[in-house]
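Reopening: structure tokens for the iron/sulfur cluster complex, inputs below.
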Amino acid sequence: MDFEKLKTHLAAHGVQKYRLTQIRKAVYEQGVRSWDQMSAVPAPLREELAPQFPMLSCKLAALRISKVSDARKALLEFKDGARIETVLLNAGSGWSVCVSSQVGCPVRCVFCATGKMGFKRNLSAIEIEEQVLFWLQHVRQEKLAQRISSVVFMGMGEPFMNYTEVVKAIGLISSHDGLGIGQRHISVSTSGFPRGIMKLASDLPQVNLALSLHTVDDLERSRLMPINRRFGLDDLKKALELYIKRTKREVFLEYAVMAGHNDSPAHARKLIEWVRSISGSYLLHVNLIPCNKVKGSQFEASTGDAERFAARLLPAGVKATVRKSLGHDIAAACGQLAAGSEGKR
Ligand code: SAH
Ligand code: SF4
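Re-run output (same inputs, fresh job):
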């Protein structure tokens, strides 16, 4: 919903201010799905506003609910036919929404399903915010929760290749006039754009940063993540140091454990060395994700691989946690989002 436009519209038409507050509460707190549900607002006003200000500009094309974990995935379709996936998950500390920032992704990491589908376009700030609003409506309707606890930019796309809209979207999602999700409950994950990392430190120092590292060998990283040919590990190190100096915030290093590719004792030793060489390294935290297998890729992890790798890091004082993967059965886990033919009507 374009709330700013609604605000201007109501002011221009001399509608009393408290009506705006009523609408705001209904949309962003109660998560109503249609204007008809806003019984406090007089019917003639609702009828006038409904066609001009739809709750969502996208429509639901498919919804999948995991049978093995608290994860749900929605395929949303925008007016131009662009389709994206967004995920709702609960790992035990409230419902979190994983949003997409682009339709597809131009970075093309070899282990990621989104990378394989190519790139169509950037999403606008409102299209990003709407993914959270969609799930708020869903959790209220399904009586799962009263609110969304956190938002992560870990869906389809590279957030820093759509920097301006992502920053605007975070503004909307955290606004007290909107969804009101605090910036400390919002995380952005990047495949490694140094300028984006440094800009985020000045523009949104409260937002959590995650860097998808996966290996600290430049040759290997370039093979896995073509972006590393443009911005190598030294560039990332400098950006991280600056980020930490400016924000004094913890940074998460995402490491998808790919059996036989980046999980040897030598890989662990190199990672320990790399982390230690960064000034402010005490603020770095390694998140180990067992690599999820995607179609057409040979990368995956077996049970226990990530735990074994963690056990090599911890004695050296490198903070490391194995992330529980949710939503395997509905292809909603990290790297599995693709918005392909599945779910097409
Ligand atoms: N484009 C951003 C954010 C979206 S991806 C980024 O790359 O950081 C979210 C996370 O899932 C990233 O850390 C990414 O590297 C990881 N990922 C991608 N494919 C994966 C896979 N097959 N298994 C596990 N993690 C994967
Ligand atoms: Fe894009 Fe992230 Fe997937 Fe790489 S891992 S292709 S950057 S979505």
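The longest helix spans residues 125-141. The chain has two domains: 1-55, 57-330. Marking as resolved unless the reporter disagrees.
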